[in-house]
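Complex record, two chains
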Amino acid sequence: MKAPQTLIGVGTLALGALLAVGATQISSDAGYAGVGPNFLPWLVGAALLLCGGFLIWEARSGGFRQMEEPSGGGTGHWPGFVWVSIGILANAVLITTIGFILSCSLCFVLAVRGFKASEGRLDLSPKAWIVDALIGFAIAAPVYWMFTQLLAINLPGLTATGWI
Amino acid sequence: MDIWNQLMQGFVTAGTPINLLWALLGCTIGTAVGVLPGIGPATAVAMLLPITLKVDPTASMIFFAGIYYGAMYGGSTTSILLNTPGESGSMVTAMEGNKMAKSGRAGAALATSAIGSFVAGTIATVLVTFFAPLVANYAVKLGPPEYFLLMVLAFCTVSAVLGKSTLRGLVSLFVGLAMGLVGIDQITGQARYTGGVPELMDGLEVVLIAVGLFAVAEALYAVLYEGRSVETQNKMSKVHMTAEEWRRSWPAWLRATFIGIPFGCIPAGGSEIPTFLSYATEKKLSKHKEDFGTVGAIEGVAGPEAANNAAITATLIPLLTLGIPTSNTTAILLGAFQNYGIQPGPQLFDKNAALVWALIASLYIGNVMLLILNLPLVGLWVKLLKIPKPQLYAGILIFATVGVYGMRQSAFDLVLLYGIGLLGVVMRRFDFPTAPVVVGMILGPLAEAQMRNALSIGEGKWGVFLQRPASLVLLIIVLAVLLLPRLMKLRKRAA
C-alpha cells in the first residue's frame, strides 16, 4: 500500500505545481478588491502542494491515517476492468459515427463481458453476445427516443431520422 | 397569513396535472435509484441535468426534488432486505433492519421506515415552510463578508469535520476548488486554466464531474474489486405493524425528526451524524434493550430512518435561502438552478417566489406519493433487487453517456468522463471523501466572488471580516469548528 499512497501524494503535488505555473499567467489586476483573479489560483495551488507534501509524509511513515478498510477484494480484477474500459472508450470514439443507440449497445455488451468476467463467469458464446446486444438496445433505444423525440435534446444518430 | 397564501399559490402551481406528473416521475425514479445499488440520488439528478435545457424550471425542480427524497425512501428497502446498505444515510437502518428481517419481520421494518420517513419528511417540510422565509428575510441583511464566511464554514464542515481524515478531506476540497477555477473569472471576465480550449471557457460541466465521480467510478470499482462479493437477500414478509410496534415506533419517529432537522439546517450536511445520534438515543431510551443486535429492535429502524429524512428535507433551508449546498445532491441541485440562471439565496423568495412555493408544495405532495409508492407497492421495488449486477452496471453506463453527452454534445467529454471515473476509483480505494470535490467545485467560484466583493467593500483590507459583528461571529464559529475537536483530542491525550 505504501507505493501507491506515495504516488497519490506525488500526484497531488503535481496538480498543485500545475496550478501554480498556470497562476503565473493570470493577471493580478486587483481593482478595488486588493486581490485579483490570480489570488485563489495561487492559494489553491499552494494548499495542494502543502497537502501533497503531508500525504507523502503520511505514506512514508506508516501509511495514511484513519483509513477505512476499502470494500471488496484485496487485489483488482484487471481483465474485467479492461473490458469495461474498452466499452466506455469505444463509446466515446464511435458515438458520432454509428449513433447513440448502436454505440451504447456496444458499450453495454462489452461492459457486461467485463462484469461477468470479474464474477468468474465470462461467457463468450455467440448467443450471449446477441442476448446482451438486444438488452443493450432495449435500454438505449427508449432512452434515445425519450431525449430526441420528447425532450428535443440532440443525441447523435446513425441516420437523421431521430429514430436510430 | 402571507406564508399561507403563498403556500396555497404553490399548491395551485404544483397541482397542475403536468407538474403532478413530474413529481410522480421524480418520486418513482428516486425510489428506484434508492433501491438499486450502485446509483444514488446525486448521480441520478446529475445524469438528468440535460433536461434543464428544455423543461421549464418549476417542473424540473419538482422532478429533481422528487428524486432527492424518493431515494431516501427507496434506500431503506435495500438496507433492510440486502446485507449491504444502499447509501450512507441508511447504514444505521441496516444494522437493526437486517436483524429484524432475519427474524422474519422484514415487513414491519419496511413499514416503520416508510411511515417514519413520511412523518419526519412532512414535519420537516412544515418547518421549511415557516422557517425558510424567516431565514431568507434575515439573510437579505447579510453582505458579501458574511456570505463568504458562511461558505467557508460549509467548506470546513464538509471536508474537515465530517470525514475521518482532515488531510484527505482537504485534498478533496482543494481538488474541487481547482476544478471550479477553470473557466471565466466571474468578476474580471478573464479566462483561467482554459489552455485556449473554447469548451473550457464555460468551466467544467457539473454533470461530467458528478457522473464520472459517482456512476463511472462506481462501475469501475465494482468490476475491479467487488466481483467476488456475495450478497444474500432476506425474506420478505407481510408489510404490517402490530399495535405494539406502532407504540414503539411513533415516539422514535418524533424524537428522530427533531434530531435530524437541525443537522440538515446547519452547513454540515450529511445524514450520518443525525442517524447515528438517533440510533444511540433510541438504544438508550428503549425498554427492549435486549432486542438491539439480536432479533432487531423496531425503534432502531424507526428512529434513524426518520432522522435521515428530516435531515435531508431540512438541507433545503440552507440551499434555498442562502444558496449553500451541504451535500452532494444539494450541490447538484444548485447546479441545476444555475443552468437556469437562477441563483438560490435570499432574493429567491422575492424574484422566483412562484418557483420556490411550488417546490415546497411539491414536497408535501411528494411525501404522500412516496408513502403510497413504498407501502402497498413495496413488492414491486423488491423485484428490482433481482436485476443481475453485470446488466445493472452496464445499464448505468448507458445513462451516464446520455447525461454527459446530452449536456454538451461533445464526444471528448466522454473521454474526460472515463478519466474522472478513474480518479473516483482511486479516491474510493484510498478513502478520500467525494462530497468536498463536488461542493468545492460548485461553491468555489461563488465563494471567490463573495470574497473579492467583500474586500472591495473593505477597500482591499482583510480587516473587513473583523469589523462587522455578524462576520466576526461567523469567523469565530469557523475557527471553533476547526480547532475545538483538535483541542479536545489533545486534552484527552493529556488527561
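Note: The two ends of chain A are 47 Å apart (CA to CA).
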